[in-house]
Design a protein that fits this description.
Elements lengths: L2 H20 L5 E2 L25 H5 L6 E2 L5 E2 L6 E2 L24 E5 L5 E5 L8 E4 L3 E4 L12 E3 L2 H6 L24 H7 L4 E4 L11 E2 L5 E7 L9 E6 L10 E2 L33
Parallel strand pairs: 1-8, 4-12, 11-14
Antiparallel strand pairs: 2-3, 5-6, 7-13, 8-10, 9-10, 12-13
The structure holds S-adenosylmethionine.
The site of S-adenosylmethionine has 14 residues, from strand 11.
GO molecular function, one term: histone methyltransferase activity
GO biological process, one term: methylation
Main location: nucleus
Length: 287
Amino acid sequence: MSISALSAKLIVHALYLEISFKYIKSIQVAKNVSVPPDAPGCNCKGECTNPRSCSCAQLNGGDFPYVSQDGGRLFEAKDVVFECGPKCGCGPQCVNRTSQQGLKYHLEVYCTKDKGWAVRSWDFIPSGAPVCEYVGVLRKNDELEDISENDYIFEIDCWHTMKGMGGRERRLRDVSIPASNRVNEVDEKTLESEYEPEFCIDASSFGNVARFINHSCDPNLFVQCILSSHHDVRLARIVLFAADNIPPMQELTYDYNYAIDSVIGPDGKTKQVPCFCGTADCRKRLY
Ligand SMILES: C[S@@+](CC[C@H](N)C(=O)[O-])C[C@H]1O[C@@H](n2cnc3c(N)ncnc32)[C@H](O)[C@@H]1O
Protein backbone atom coordinates (compact mmCIF):
# COMPACT_ATOMS: atom_id res chain seq x y z
CA MET A 1 0.00 0.00 0.00
CA SER A 2 1.35 3.47 -0.87
CA ILE A 3 2.17 5.96 1.90
CA SER A 4 -0.70 8.26 0.88
CA ALA A 5 -3.22 5.38 0.78
CA LEU A 6 -2.01 4.27 4.21
CA SER A 7 -2.32 7.78 5.66
CA ALA A 8 -5.81 8.13 4.15
CA LYS A 9 -6.77 4.83 5.77
CA LEU A 10 -5.38 5.97 9.13
CA ILE A 11 -7.26 9.28 8.91
CA VAL A 12 -10.55 7.51 8.12
CA HIS A 13 -9.93 5.11 10.99
CA ALA A 14 -9.10 7.97 13.37
CA LEU A 15 -12.23 9.85 12.31
CA TYR A 16 -14.32 6.74 12.82
CA LEU A 17 -12.86 6.29 16.32
CA GLU A 18 -13.43 9.95 17.10
CA ILE A 19 -17.08 9.78 16.07
CA SER A 20 -17.83 6.49 17.76
CA PHE A 21 -16.11 7.44 21.02
CA LYS A 22 -18.19 10.57 21.34
CA TYR A 23 -21.21 8.41 22.00
CA ILE A 24 -19.71 5.78 24.30
CA LYS A 25 -20.01 7.23 27.75
CA SER A 26 -20.78 4.55 30.29
CA ILE A 27 -19.30 1.25 31.18
CA GLN A 28 -20.82 -2.15 30.50
CA VAL A 29 -20.99 -4.71 33.27
CA ALA A 30 -20.05 -8.37 32.77
CA LYS A 31 -22.89 -10.79 33.63
CA ASN A 32 -21.18 -12.19 36.71
CA VAL A 33 -20.41 -8.81 38.26
CA SER A 34 -23.05 -7.31 40.48
CA VAL A 35 -22.95 -3.60 41.01
CA PRO A 36 -24.21 -2.56 44.47
CA PRO A 37 -27.52 -0.74 44.79
CA ASP A 38 -27.57 3.05 44.57
CA ALA A 39 -26.33 4.74 47.73
CA PRO A 40 -28.61 7.15 49.59
CA GLY A 41 -28.30 10.66 48.18
CA CYS A 42 -28.27 14.24 49.39
CA ASN A 43 -31.43 16.31 49.80
CA CYS A 44 -30.22 19.34 47.84
CA LYS A 45 -32.43 20.85 45.14
CA GLY A 46 -31.21 22.13 41.76
CA GLU A 47 -27.49 22.41 42.41
CA CYS A 48 -25.60 21.53 45.59
CA THR A 49 -24.19 24.76 46.98
CA ASN A 50 -24.09 24.45 50.75
CA PRO A 51 -21.45 21.94 51.90
CA ARG A 52 -22.84 21.93 55.44
CA SER A 53 -26.24 20.64 54.39
CA CYS A 54 -25.11 18.43 51.48
CA SER A 55 -24.43 14.88 52.64
CA CYS A 56 -22.25 14.24 49.55
CA ALA A 57 -19.99 17.18 50.47
CA GLN A 58 -19.73 15.66 53.95
CA LEU A 59 -18.48 12.39 52.41
CA ASN A 60 -15.75 14.44 50.74
CA GLY A 61 -14.52 15.75 54.07
CA GLY A 62 -16.98 18.62 54.44
CA ASP A 63 -16.53 20.44 51.16
CA PHE A 64 -17.20 20.07 47.45
CA PRO A 65 -14.26 18.58 45.55
CA TYR A 66 -14.93 20.78 42.51
CA VAL A 67 -14.91 24.49 41.82
CA SER A 68 -17.51 25.54 39.27
CA GLN A 69 -15.07 27.51 37.06
CA ASP A 70 -14.92 26.25 33.42
CA GLY A 71 -17.83 23.86 33.95
CA GLY A 72 -16.21 22.14 36.94
CA ARG A 73 -12.59 21.65 37.91
CA LEU A 74 -11.26 19.32 40.58
CA PHE A 75 -9.71 21.42 43.29
CA GLU A 76 -7.06 18.80 44.08
CA ALA A 77 -6.48 15.07 43.55
CA LYS A 78 -8.15 13.02 46.28
CA ASP A 79 -8.07 9.39 47.37
CA VAL A 80 -11.63 9.07 46.21
CA VAL A 81 -14.21 11.64 45.14
CA PHE A 82 -17.83 11.15 46.16
CA GLU A 83 -20.06 12.68 43.50
CA CYS A 84 -23.81 13.09 43.65
CA GLY A 85 -25.69 10.11 42.28
CA PRO A 86 -29.11 8.81 41.19
CA LYS A 87 -30.70 9.21 44.63
CA CYS A 88 -29.54 12.79 45.15
CA GLY A 89 -32.06 15.61 44.96
CA CYS A 90 -29.88 17.84 42.76
CA GLY A 91 -30.04 18.00 38.98
CA PRO A 92 -27.62 16.94 36.23
CA GLN A 93 -25.85 20.32 36.18
CA CYS A 94 -24.81 20.09 39.83
CA VAL A 95 -21.09 20.85 40.18
CA ASN A 96 -20.72 17.70 42.24
CA ARG A 97 -21.51 15.68 39.09
CA THR A 98 -18.67 17.21 37.10
CA SER A 99 -17.28 13.92 35.81
CA GLN A 100 -20.70 12.72 34.67
CA GLN A 101 -21.22 15.43 32.08
CA GLY A 102 -19.56 13.72 29.12
CA LEU A 103 -16.67 14.77 26.90
CA LYS A 104 -16.13 18.53 26.84
CA TYR A 105 -13.03 18.71 24.68
CA HIS A 106 -12.46 17.78 21.08
CA LEU A 107 -10.20 14.76 21.46
CA GLU A 108 -8.39 13.26 18.51
CA VAL A 109 -6.90 9.78 18.16
CA TYR A 110 -3.75 9.90 16.06
CA CYS A 111 -0.87 7.63 15.18
CA THR A 112 2.60 8.03 16.71
CA LYS A 113 5.87 6.70 15.33
CA ASP A 114 6.73 4.42 18.26
CA LYS A 115 3.74 4.06 20.62
CA GLY A 116 0.89 3.15 18.26
CA TRP A 117 -2.27 5.23 18.69
CA ALA A 118 -2.31 8.25 20.99
CA VAL A 119 -4.72 11.00 22.01
CA ARG A 120 -4.53 14.79 21.93
CA SER A 121 -7.01 17.62 22.32
CA TRP A 122 -7.77 20.29 19.77
CA ASP A 123 -8.86 22.52 22.66
CA PHE A 124 -6.98 24.00 25.57
CA ILE A 125 -7.72 21.97 28.74
CA PRO A 126 -7.49 23.81 32.06
CA SER A 127 -5.81 22.18 35.04
CA GLY A 128 -8.26 20.11 37.11
CA ALA A 129 -10.77 19.62 34.29
CA PRO A 130 -12.16 16.13 33.70
CA VAL A 131 -10.91 14.84 30.35
CA CYS A 132 -12.54 11.42 30.01
CA GLU A 133 -13.62 8.36 31.92
CA TYR A 134 -11.87 5.02 31.32
CA VAL A 135 -14.78 3.12 29.79
CA GLY A 136 -14.93 -0.61 29.03
CA VAL A 137 -16.46 -3.78 30.42
CA LEU A 138 -16.39 -4.13 34.19
CA ARG A 139 -14.97 -7.60 34.82
CA LYS A 140 -13.53 -9.75 37.58
CA ASN A 141 -9.74 -9.91 37.33
CA ASP A 142 -9.63 -13.64 37.90
CA GLU A 143 -11.71 -14.30 34.80
CA LEU A 144 -9.46 -12.56 32.36
CA GLU A 145 -7.41 -14.71 30.11
CA ASP A 146 -3.95 -13.63 29.03
CA ILE A 147 -3.93 -10.47 31.11
CA SER A 148 -0.32 -9.86 30.13
CA GLU A 149 -1.33 -9.79 26.46
CA ASN A 150 -4.20 -7.36 26.91
CA ASP A 151 -3.07 -3.74 26.60
CA TYR A 152 -6.49 -2.30 27.43
CA ILE A 153 -7.07 -3.39 31.02
CA PHE A 154 -7.34 -0.89 33.82
CA GLU A 155 -7.29 -2.58 37.21
CA ILE A 156 -9.42 -0.73 39.73
CA ASP A 157 -6.87 -0.40 42.47
CA CYS A 158 -8.13 2.61 44.34
CA TRP A 159 -7.10 1.08 47.66
CA HIS A 160 -3.52 1.07 46.44
CA THR A 161 -3.74 4.74 45.59
CA MET A 162 -5.47 5.53 48.86
CA LYS A 163 -2.93 3.72 50.96
CA GLY A 164 0.11 4.78 48.90
CA MET A 165 0.89 1.14 48.30
CA GLY A 166 3.33 1.68 45.46
CA GLY A 167 3.11 0.83 41.79
CA ARG A 168 0.17 -0.87 40.20
CA GLU A 169 0.75 -4.48 39.47
CA ARG A 170 -0.72 -6.50 36.72
CA ARG A 171 -1.16 -10.07 37.74
CA LEU A 172 -3.79 -12.66 38.25
CA ARG A 173 -4.16 -14.21 41.63
CA ASP A 174 -6.87 -15.66 43.84
CA VAL A 175 -7.54 -12.93 46.30
CA SER A 176 -9.61 -12.59 49.37
CA ILE A 177 -11.32 -9.22 49.49
CA PRO A 178 -13.00 -7.95 52.64
CA ALA A 179 -16.78 -8.38 52.48
CA SER A 180 -17.26 -4.78 53.52
CA ASN A 181 -17.81 -2.22 50.82
CA ARG A 182 -17.37 0.90 52.92
CA VAL A 183 -14.12 2.80 52.93
CA ASN A 184 -13.56 3.04 56.66
CA GLU A 185 -14.83 -0.40 57.61
CA VAL A 186 -11.89 -2.26 56.13
CA ASP A 187 -9.20 -3.49 58.45
CA GLU A 188 -5.86 -1.76 57.78
CA LYS A 189 -3.83 -4.96 58.17
CA THR A 190 -5.94 -6.79 55.63
CA LEU A 191 -5.36 -3.96 53.22
CA GLU A 192 -1.63 -3.89 53.48
CA SER A 193 -0.98 -7.60 53.43
CA GLU A 194 -3.72 -9.13 51.31
CA TYR A 195 -5.52 -6.61 49.23
CA GLU A 196 -5.29 -6.97 45.49
CA PRO A 197 -7.61 -5.36 42.97
CA GLU A 198 -10.58 -7.63 42.30
CA PHE A 199 -12.14 -5.86 39.36
CA CYS A 200 -10.92 -4.18 36.22
CA ILE A 201 -12.22 -2.23 33.27
CA ASP A 202 -11.50 -4.17 30.11
CA ALA A 203 -11.50 -1.90 27.08
CA SER A 204 -10.21 -4.52 24.64
CA SER A 205 -13.58 -5.16 22.98
CA PHE A 206 -15.57 -2.10 24.01
CA GLY A 207 -14.34 1.27 25.14
CA ASN A 208 -13.91 4.93 24.49
CA VAL A 209 -11.05 7.27 23.64
CA ALA A 210 -9.36 6.61 27.02
CA ARG A 211 -8.14 3.24 25.77
CA PHE A 212 -5.75 5.04 23.40
CA ILE A 213 -4.13 7.27 25.99
CA ASN A 214 -0.48 6.36 26.43
CA HIS A 215 1.74 6.24 29.48
CA SER A 216 4.23 8.95 30.41
CA CYS A 217 6.65 9.10 33.33
CA ASP A 218 5.85 12.84 33.46
CA PRO A 219 2.17 12.91 32.49
CA ASN A 220 -0.29 15.75 32.00
CA LEU A 221 -3.30 13.76 33.29
CA PHE A 222 -3.92 11.96 36.55
CA VAL A 223 -6.21 9.12 37.55
CA GLN A 224 -9.02 9.91 39.95
CA CYS A 225 -11.25 7.25 41.56
CA ILE A 226 -14.85 8.41 41.69
CA LEU A 227 -17.92 7.00 43.41
CA SER A 228 -21.24 8.34 42.20
CA SER A 229 -24.04 5.75 42.21
CA HIS A 230 -22.76 3.29 44.83
CA HIS A 231 -19.99 3.51 47.43
CA ASP A 232 -18.00 0.35 46.72
CA VAL A 233 -14.45 1.48 46.11
CA ARG A 234 -13.57 -1.87 44.50
CA LEU A 235 -15.84 -0.84 41.64
CA ALA A 236 -15.03 2.86 41.54
CA ARG A 237 -15.22 4.78 38.27
CA ILE A 238 -11.86 5.78 36.84
CA VAL A 239 -11.70 9.29 35.45
CA LEU A 240 -8.71 11.09 33.96
CA PHE A 241 -8.23 14.74 34.90
CA ALA A 242 -5.84 17.41 33.64
CA ALA A 243 -2.82 17.71 35.94
CA ASP A 244 -1.74 20.99 34.32
CA ASN A 245 -3.03 23.52 31.84
CA ILE A 246 -2.71 21.52 28.63
CA PRO A 247 -2.18 23.41 25.38
CA PRO A 248 -3.96 22.21 22.24
CA MET A 249 -2.34 19.31 20.33
CA GLN A 250 -0.13 18.16 23.19
CA GLU A 251 -0.29 14.39 23.64
CA LEU A 252 -2.47 13.41 26.60
CA THR A 253 -0.81 10.91 28.93
CA TYR A 254 -1.13 9.47 32.41
CA ASP A 255 1.25 7.41 34.51
CA TYR A 256 0.31 3.72 34.19
CA ASN A 257 2.31 3.34 37.38
CA TYR A 258 3.11 -0.34 36.94
CA ALA A 259 5.62 -1.89 39.29
CA ILE A 260 8.68 -2.91 37.30
CA ASP A 261 8.91 -6.72 36.83
CA SER A 262 5.30 -7.20 37.94
CA VAL A 263 4.05 -8.58 34.63
CA ILE A 264 4.56 -12.24 33.87
CA GLY A 265 4.05 -13.35 30.28
CA PRO A 266 2.34 -16.57 29.12
CA ASP A 267 5.79 -18.23 29.05
CA GLY A 268 6.14 -17.61 32.81
CA LYS A 269 8.92 -15.07 32.29
CA THR A 270 8.91 -11.44 33.41
CA LYS A 271 7.69 -9.23 30.63
CA GLN A 272 9.62 -6.07 29.85
CA VAL A 273 8.19 -3.25 27.77
CA PRO A 274 10.38 -0.23 26.97
CA CYS A 275 8.94 3.22 27.61
CA PHE A 276 9.08 5.74 24.79
CA CYS A 277 7.56 8.68 26.65
CA GLY A 278 10.75 10.67 26.00
CA THR A 279 10.59 12.72 29.20
CA ALA A 280 13.72 13.73 31.12
CA ASP A 281 12.80 11.49 34.08
CA CYS A 282 11.71 8.50 32.02
CA ARG A 283 11.92 5.23 33.98
CA LYS A 284 12.77 3.51 30.67
CA ARG A 285 10.24 0.73 31.11
CA LEU A 286 6.45 0.54 31.28
CA TYR A 287 6.80 -2.61 33.44
C1 LIG B 1 -3.87 1.40 26.63
S1 LIG B 1 -2.83 1.14 25.25
C2 LIG B 1 -2.55 2.77 24.68
C3 LIG B 1 -2.86 2.89 23.20
C4 LIG B 1 -1.90 2.20 22.30
N1 LIG B 1 -0.80 3.08 21.98
C5 LIG B 1 -2.58 1.72 21.04
O1 LIG B 1 -2.05 1.91 19.94
O2 LIG B 1 -3.66 1.14 21.13
C6 LIG B 1 -1.35 0.70 26.09
C7 LIG B 1 -0.23 0.23 25.20
O3 LIG B 1 0.30 1.30 24.43
C8 LIG B 1 1.72 1.22 24.35
N2 LIG B 1 2.29 2.34 25.10
C9 LIG B 1 1.63 3.22 25.89
N3 LIG B 1 2.48 4.12 26.41
C10 LIG B 1 3.70 3.81 25.97
C11 LIG B 1 4.98 4.36 26.19
N4 LIG B 1 5.19 5.42 26.95
N5 LIG B 1 6.03 3.76 25.58
C12 LIG B 1 5.86 2.68 24.80
N6 LIG B 1 4.67 2.12 24.54
C13 LIG B 1 3.59 2.67 25.13
C14 LIG B 1 2.10 -0.10 25.02
O4 LIG B 1 2.09 -1.09 24.03
C15 LIG B 1 0.94 -0.31 25.98
O5 LIG B 1 0.79 -1.67 26.32
